[in-house]
UniProtKB/TrEMBL annotation:
The keyword Mitochondrion does not apply. It comes from the Eukaryota. InterPro entries: ATPase_NBD. It comes from Nothoprocta pentlandii. GO terms for molecular function: kinase activity. This is XYLB kinase. Keywords: Kinase, Transferase.
Amino acid sequence: ISQVLSDVFNAPVYTMDTANSACLGSAYRAIHGLVAETGVSLADVVKLAPESRLAVTPTTGAEEV
């Protein structure tokens, strides 16, 4: 399923060795949404997040299908 997401959105997919890592990523985005008005960047919000690793990259030519 990660490859499908990568191809559909034409973006690399990263994962974490954490249960419910997708929910965790959504939580970080929500926190950023709350503090973005104060000038806090997403990078600052996630700097203490668990390390992620590249799972897949888009298939060449997938954006043309």
